[in-house]
Amino acid sequence: MRTLTAGARGLGLRPEFVDTLLESPAVKGLDFLEVAPENWMQIGGRKRDQLDRIADRYPLVAHGLSLSIADTEPLNTAFLRDIARFLDDYGIAIYSDHLSAARDSTGYLYDLLPVPRRAENLPYLADRIAQVQDITSRRLVLENISAYHLYSGEMPEGAFFAELVARSGCGILLDINNAYVNARNHGTDASAFLRALPSEAIVYYHIAGHLELADGFLVDTHGAPVADAVMALAHETWALHGARPLLLERDNNVPALDVLLADLGAIATTIDEGRHVLA
Amino acid sequence: MSLPETAAPRAMAMEFASFCRAARKNGSGIYGQLLRENVADALRASFPLFTGLIGSAALDAAIEAFIQRHPATRPQFHHIATEFLLFVQRQPVSPREQIALLEYEWALLAAEIDAASVPPASTEMERLALNPTTRLVLLQFDPAQPAAGGDGVDRPHAIFRNANHQVLTLPLTLPDCLLIEHLRAKEAAPLAGLFDTLTPCCSTVELQTSLTRGLICGLFCPPPRPSETPHETDRPC
What we know:
With 279 residues, chain A is of the alpha/beta class. Chain A is built from ten helices and twelve strands. Chain A has an eight-stranded parallel beta barrel with strand order 1-2-3-4-7-8-9-12, surrounded by four helices. In chain A, strands 5-6 form a two-stranded antiparallel sheet. Chain A has a two-stranded antiparallel ribbon with strand order 10-11. In chain B, strands 5-1-6 form a three-stranded antiparallel beta sheet. A three-stranded antiparallel beta sheet of chain B has the order 2-3-4, with helices on one face. The model of chain B is unreliable at 229-233 (pLDDT under 50).
């Protein structure tokens, strides 16, 4: 398994630029690629061939969509075993998903749904994380989602994450854009969220663009360049928690690979310059 | 060894169930919209002919019913197509031609991503197998113009992915069907004497023509090596 340095920069692997990536042995400024295991595992044909060739050239990080760690149904252990096989086959050390649910008692809903952040739910979630870590033989890394619904009387998100890490030993994938979107939409303090997180548990960062609706509501679309306000929060994140591998997410309106790489390089440079100023 | 499962706190289960019920029933809330948009995007990508044929109003109605009622068991997003097909197949009022088109597009998708490895044809092979990605379907329409509709007559076709990752739809003749049935029964058959048991039904020339065409397009291929990936794709059709 290949490890990533704190200064590593990555992109989510998209079908739009797989062929371009495969035209050269390795692209400068791109240190790793993130794949959604659900989109690549147990399939053959052209996609399998592409992934095999990509994996020969770049370290991969797995970022799942359907683990549904926080739903209230029994864990889908068959699915988890398939995930574990995929991680082993491609020598993937980091397996992340979201602190959310994707399923109710009827079935899968194919989205990242928020669950109530209450102290009494933490032991249940920690038990489930332990099961996942047991089956995959890896530390589970969980991302903070953009949540468009609040349950009444919830714990602050940062405190909830910190307590979950303490109970389960899971890692954190800190999505800086999601932190900003939640703070704007719900009138909470993004800085307080960042300060509540245990630095040592943060494994890597996501950064992305969002869409602002006419009424000011923000939607996490991964379809636009990173907003200045999110970059400012990224500076604050680096100052608080230090450098980690950084991944730029772009899933809609995907530009050409060279444009994405230029964006990624500019973001990393800006953050690095800001870090020196803050230091 | 996995740890024992614990049940969710009752209040958590009730709160989350209430939230999901609202998202399933109400398409105007943000999560209701997101669920419907995700499914619509997946269906348009997986079933371009079907979604184009039924139009946006009927598609919206089908998605609404799917989200409100369907117990999807497959977590992978690319299986939204599989789940939707299963849902439509179970509806008592689904028009037959729409289901046929949906099944055809699903078979194309399934062959494209089938986990099986397709060995390239070889001039020196001693044994012959049916391409492991093959789906056999009866089509009433011309696959070159599926949206033009059918004539009510079922015609056998094979849908498969060749060793170059191309997905092909091949109309089948009687000799094709005989060879396919023979290979399916045996999994792999020696080339020598292949026609011996089939010649009462077809001439050797007809069988040889079928075999040559099948080898060229990839319908027939060498048997997979024992170490190659087993066939794992769902098969709802």
